[in-house]
Write a structure and sequence with these properties.
Elements: H1 2-16, E1 23-26, E2 35-37, E3 44-50, E4 54-64, E5 77-84, E6 87-96, E7 98-108, E8 114-128, E9 131-138, E10 148-152, E11 164-165, E12 167-170, H2 179-201
Antiparallel strand pairs: 1-12, 2-10, 3-9, 4-8, 4-10, 4-12, 5-6, 5-9, 7-8, 10-11
Helix pairs in contact: 1-2
């Protein structure tokens, strides 16, 4: 009986401390002002700052294609740059977004429909020291020739056209096992162990 109680306590602790998103930089959510094209070779850069050493594993940004994500091939490429006196400096990391996951945010944007939250993993983790950097997004392809990175409320204007874009950086992975699934797997194991304990008591 003590063994079963211990297992129950362990399950509760896991549920309360399950893997959650770990946002290390947040540039803000979408507004209803505008969106800038990241179709094909069009690239948008926006700056970010870190107060300490951080490991970036995934990115979330807000996207629209005039009609949700219709026509978008769910592809995206990223570039991370050092800062060079307020403009992009040396390229630090680049690649195609992995495990691209779009979700309707339910938040409106300027030009019809809702902004979509698009999350993706980096090809490999990028660890950066405290300082200023830039994120560039590009390479989206679409059958209707539209792919827009949605703007956010004014942060610092250190981007194309003096506007800022809605995105965040995360130290977790989009592809990680969701918390409910992880808890279910753990709970299944606990139930099996509890069954073994009961049989031993018989």
């Amino acid at each position: 009986m003590k063994f079963i109680k211990l297992l129950s306590v362990s399950a509760v602790l896991l549920l309360s401390s399950g893997a959650q998103a770990a946002i290390i930089y947040d540039n803000g959510g979408p507004n209803t002002e505008n969106g800038w094209s990241i179709l094909g070779s069009n690239q948008i850069n926006d700056n970010f700052s870190l107060s300490g050493t951080q490991s970036i594993r995934s990115v979330g940004f807000y996207f629209q294609n005039y009609d949700g994500i219709t026509g978008w091939n769910q592809d995206i490429s990223y570039n991370i740059y050092a800062d060079n006196n307020g403009v992009t400096g040396n390229l630090i990391a680049s690649g195609a977004g992995q495990n691209v996951t779009p979700t309707d945010s339910g938040l409106p944007w300027c030009c019809g429909g809702n902004a979509w939250l698009v999350e993706f993993d980096l090809v490999s983790t990028v660890t950066l020291a405290a300082g200023n950097y830039w994120l560039g997004l590009t390479g989206a392809s679409s059958t209707n020739n539209a792919a827009w990175w949605v703007t956010t409320n004014y942060i610092d204007g250190s981007s194309i056209g003096g506007v800022d874009f809605a995105y965040y950086l995360d130290s977790s992975r989009v592809s990680a096992i969701p918390v409910p699934a992880a808890v279910w797997l753990f709970a299944s194991g606990l139930m099996g162990l509890a069954g073994v304990a009961r049989r031993r008591q018989v």
